[in-house]
Amino acid sequence: MSTLKRPIILIGFMGAGKTSVGRALAQDYQCRFVDLDEHIASSESMSIPDIFSQYGENTFRSFEHKYLQQAMEQYEIISTGGGIISSDETFQFLKMVNADIIWLDAPFSVLYARIKDDPNRPKAKNSQKETLKNLYLSRVSRYNEIAFIKVSTNSTFNETIATIEKNISANDQY
């Protein structure tokens, strides 16, 4: 049984490590985890790039909102896609939700190195470094506005997990 008092929602740019961190936290806290992008792809029987190319980003964002609301009822830890804050509707939902929203971040150069050759990231595929940096910078203020804490994933994986768990534990004291 989970020892979490509230769900954890992991946000951050592509390549921040949301899925890896989410899986590790779910194992440590013995609770249910979902990668929202994987859940959308499975539920819609289409890859994220195929949803983008066939239906466009707006349709994907509406799927994202719908499945995030459903996931909140079924999972204790949710890793989101980097653009979860792009839709005003989803952004407002995240501002109001009773969850610990953790912003995973790293220097842009580190994020870029992690995502530059990944064909499963429609926003990164065939994009120039400067274009992606501008996308990253355009999202920073929204990540910051809704995050309970910001954690760097530019350290070791174990240090990242320890930092998150320490903050969750400290927050549970109140």
From TrEMBL:
SUPFAM superfamilies for the chain: P-loop containing nucleoside triphosphate hydrolases (SSF52540)
UniProt pathway annotation: Metabolic intermediate biosynthesis; chorismate biosynthesis; chorismate from D-erythrose 4-phosphate and phosphoenolpyruvate: step 5/7
Main location: cytoplasm
Keywords: Amino-acid biosynthesis, Aromatic amino acid biosynthesis, ATP-binding, Cytoplasm, Kinase, Magnesium, Metal-binding, Nucleotide-binding, Transferase
InterPro entries reported in the protein's UniProt record: P-loop_NTPase (IPR027417), Shikimate/glucono_kinase (IPR031322), Shikimate_kinase/TSH1 (IPR000623), Shikimate_kinase_CS (IPR023000)
Top EC category: transferase
Pfam families registered for this protein in UniProt: SKI
Cofactor: Mg(2+)
UniProt-annotated binding residues for substrate: D37, R61, G82, R139
GO molecular function, one term: kinase activity
Cofactor descriptive note: Binds 1 Mg(2+) ion per subunit.
Location of this chain's protein in the cell: Cytoplasm
Known catalytic reactions: shikimate + ATP = 3-phosphoshikimate + ADP + H(+)
Residues reported in the UniProt entry to bind Mg(2+): T19
Residues annotated to bind ATP: G15, A16, G17, K18, T19, S20, R121
Quaternary structure note: Monomer.
Function: Catalyzes the specific phosphorylation of the 3-hydroxyl group of shikimic acid using ATP as a cosubstrate.
Family from the record: Belongs to the shikimate kinase family.
Name of this chain's protein: Shikimate kinase
Species this protein is from: Staphylococcus muscae
Taxonomic classification: Bacteria, Bacillati, Bacillota, Bacilli, Bacillales
